[in-house]
Amino acid sequence: MRQERGESSHLEVERELLRLCKEGGQRFYEPIVRTYERPGLRIAVGMLGSIDEAQDAVQDAFVKAWQSLHRFDLGQPFGPWFFRILRNQCQDMIRSRRSRNRIEARDRNFDIPPTGATTDPEHIRMRSEVQELFWKALSVIGDEHREILILKEIEDLPYAVIANILEIPEGTVASRLFHARGALRSALSEMNFEYP
C-alpha cells in the first residue's frame, strides 16, 4: 500500500510539473528529463547498440516531446508516451543507417545497474562478461525482438505499459516476448552460452 501511495504521489507531482510545462514553464521540464533520461538511455542503447547514438536519440526525443507537449493528455502517465517518441526516434535512426546490415554494440562499457551491489572482484568480472554476451546477442537479433527484450528484461516494464509503447494488444506482448527470448536463446547458444 505504501508503494502505491508513493507511486500515486510521484504521478501527481509529475502531472503538476507537466501542467506547468504546458503553460510555458520550461524550467519545470528538467525534473521530467532527469526522471526519464536514464531508462530512456538504456532503451535507446538496446535498440541502437551505441551510447553516442543513444544519447542523440534521447536528446532528440526529449525535444520532440517538449514540442508536442501541447498534445499530451495530462490524465495519462508521461513515461509510456515519451518512450513511444523515443522508440520512433530510434527506429528513424535505424532506418537512416540501413545500409549497414548489422547493428554492432560498439560500446560495451554501458553498464546495467546491478540490483544488488557487490564488491567481490570475481562476481563483478562474471557480471561484466555476462553483460557483454547479452549486449552482443542483442546486437544480432531482429529489431522487434531487441526492443521488447529491452523494455521487459532491462526496464522491467509491465505488459500493459509495453503494449502502450509499442501500440500493440497486451496479449501480443507476451507472444512477442516469447519469440524474442527464443531468438536471444539461439543467439547466446551460438556463442556457447546457455540462456536460462
Question: Which descriptors apply to this entry?
Answer:
2 domains; mainly alpha; sigma factor activity; Arc Repressor Mutant, subunit A; Rna Polymerase Sigma Factor, Chain: A; 196 residues; RNA_pol_sigma-70-like; globular; 8 helices; 70% helix; WH-like_DNA-bd_sf; RNA polymerase sigma factor
Could you explain the architecture of this structure?
Residues 33-99 form the RNA polymerase sigma-70 region domain. InterPro entries: RNA_pol_sigma-70-like, RNA_pol_sigma-70_dom, RNA_pol_sigma70_r2, RNA_pol_sigma70_r4_t2, RNA_pol_sigma_r2, RNA_pol_sigma_r3/r4-like, WH-like_DNA-bd_sf. This is RNA polymerase sigma factor. It holds the Pfam family Sigma70_r4_2. There is one protein chain. The chain has 8 helices and no strands. By secondary structure, the chain is mainly α. Helix 2 (29-48) crosses helix 4 and helix 6 (143-154) crosses helix 8 (170-190). Residues 99-115 have low confidence and may be disordered.
List the helices and strands and how they pair.
Layout: H1 2-22, H2 29-48, H3 51-67, H4 78-96, H5 121-140, H6 143-154, H7 159-166, H8 170-190
Domain RNA polymerase sigma factor 70 region 4 type: 144-184
Family: Belongs to the sigma-70 factor family. ECF subfamily.
GO biological process, one term: DNA-templated transcription initiation
